[in-house]
Amino acid sequence: MCRLDGEGVDGDDCFADFPRFWGYWRGDGSGGWEWSSVGAGSTTVSAGAVEGWSWGEGTDGQTHPSPPAATFEGVCAGAVATRHVETLLGMGGVPRALTHLWDRRRLAAETVELLGAHGPAVREHLVTDVVPLADAPALLADVAARRRHVIQAVFACPAADAGG
Prior knowledge:
- This protein is α+β, with helices and mostly antiparallel strands.
- The chain folds into three domains: 1-77, no CATH class; 79-126, no CATH class; 127-164, no CATH class.
- It is built from four helices and nine strands, in the order βββββββαααβαβ.
- The chain has helices spanning 72-75, 82-89, 104-126, 136-144; strands spanning 3-4, 7-8, 20-27, 30-31, 34-35, 50-57, 70-71, 129-132, 153-156.
- The longest helix is centred in the last third of the chain and has 23 residues, at 104-126.
């Protein structure tokens, strides 16, 4: 994805407007930024850290504009506790070294607790699309063809008939 909220370029070549491009910045959560000379796919985010992207011209941290100052607390105000976020993200699996601590039952219990306590925030910040189950094939076709960008989709089932 090379375009966000009208900034950036259309298409798959994010450097098509070089020297303007998305600069990748990393922060320790205290408000400042450090230029990253590698892409997000080559980094590991630690607990409490923040990541930022800024559209602009420049080739390094001295010439490219940085994102606005951002602290972890400011970005994640009212967000769920770190352990719950890790639980939610871990539903697809956990690191092999932790499987003895996080079996499916524990993952399910933590996820239910997370959704019970913070369901609206999870919906607001992580689920980009809620579509009727009947529309699922069209949504998946659009995503596969790159006509639509989805972070998390939920397929809504029709309500069960109470009479029968």
